[in-house]
Amino acid sequence: MASNLRPLSPHLQVYRTMYTMALSILHRATGVALSGSLLLLAAWLLALASGAPCYGWVAALLGSPLGLLVLAGVLAAFWYHFCTGIRHLVFDTGHCLEKRQARLSARVVIVAVVILTGASLLALLHRGGYV
Amino acid sequence: MSSKSPLGRALGLGLVDGTHHWWLQRVTAVALALLGPWFAISLLLQPDLGYVHAHAWLASPVNAVLMLLLVPALVYHSWLGVVVVIEDYVPAKSKKITALLVVQFLHLLIGAAALFGVLKVALGSAA
């Protein structure tokens, strides 16, 4: 049997757009972005193991305006994925699945992400960058 | 072959064992919910991340051990997540398998590089 004859689940477009839906889609998007940022983590650790000249090169890249922008994005994506991830873990236990509760937890998540990301960016800038 | 039920024919045809991966995704999620903030906050609170200070940070036993837990948890969680995304969005079977192979080898490469970095710094300074 051809694989394209298999039954399909209702597609995204049959649902009314809700911010809870955007929240869930962004969880996946930030997850993929964070996967990409693993390259940065590995580069940083390898540079640290390779000695001061190599580390200086990587640190300069990360400390450049573009590097800081990327780091800020990674921090925002991390705190977002962290908060929505905890929300999904609660869902997995079967709790807070009612529509009203899900919308409330979505708002709590948004506030928490703004606070955590804001505090992280302040810490990043307060140090005057990366190095 | 015709004696098999539809379920019997379908079982084992998936690219991965779903239940096992679903569970491991949650196990690594809980680990990362603890280790992730530790890593981010710990580095953000360092007054200086120049070579000497960053090297000392990673060489300290507590930080090194936590990094040895963080790196595999991150790599495995990311691996499982990206595999699910590819399975959902890449329709053609040949492209799907190619994408899965590339992504999985990349994760192994990143994991090996990151672990090597941690071990070299941590063990190098102990000697």
Summarize the structure.
The complex is a heterodimer of chains A (131) and B (127). By secondary structure, chain A is mainly alpha-helical.
Structure report:
The complex is a heterodimer of chains A (131) and B (127). Chain A has 131 residues and is an all-alpha fold. Chain A has one domain (20-127): 3 helical TM bundles of succinate and fumarate reductases, CATH 1.20.1300.10. Chain A contains four helices and no strands. Chain A has helices spanning 19-50, 52-63, 65-92, 99-126. In chain A, α2 (52-63) packs across α3. Chain A starts with 18 loop residues before the first helix and ends in a 5-residue tail after the last helix. The relative contact order of chain A is 0.12. Chain B has 127 residues and is mainly α. Chain B has one domain: 3 helical TM bundles of succinate and fumarate reductases (Up-down Bundle). The longest helix of chain B is centred in the last third of the chain and has 34 residues, at 93-126. In chain B, α2 crosses α4 (61-89) and α4 packs antiparallel against α5 (93-126). Chain B is built from five helices and no strands. Helices cover 82% and strands 0% of the residues of chain B. Classes of the chains: A mainly alpha (131), B mainly alpha (127). Chain A binds chain B through residues 3, 28, 31-32, 34-35, 38-39, 41-42, 44-49, 52, 55-56, 59, 75, 78, 82, 85-86, 89, 92, 120, 123-124, 127, 130-131, and chain B through 26, 29-30, 32-33, 36-37, 40, 44-52, 54-55, 58, 67, 71, 74-75, 78, 81-82, 85, 93, 107, 110, 113-114, 116-118, 120-121, 124.
Order of helices and strands of chain A: HHHH
Content-based structural category of chain B: mainly alpha
CATH level 3 topology of chain A: 3 helical TM bundles of succinate and fumarate reductases
Strand proportion of chain B:
under 5%
- Corresponding CATH superfamily of chain A: Fumarate reductase/succinate dehydrogenase, transmembrane subunit
Can you tell me the CATH class of chain A?
Mainly Alpha
CATH topology of chain B: 3 helical TM bundles of succinate and fumarate reductases
Low-confidence stretches of chain A: none
The helix content of chain B is: over 70%
Biggest sheet descriptor of chain A: none
The total count of strands of chain A amounts to 0
Query: In the residues of chain B, how many domains can be counted?
Result: 1
Mean pLDDT of chain B: 89
Unreliable sequence segments of chain B: none
- Supply the CATH architecture of chain A: Up-down Bundle
Number of domains of chain A: 1
What is the average of the pLDDT values of chain A?
89
Structural class of chain A: mainly alpha
| Main sheet characteristics of chain B | none
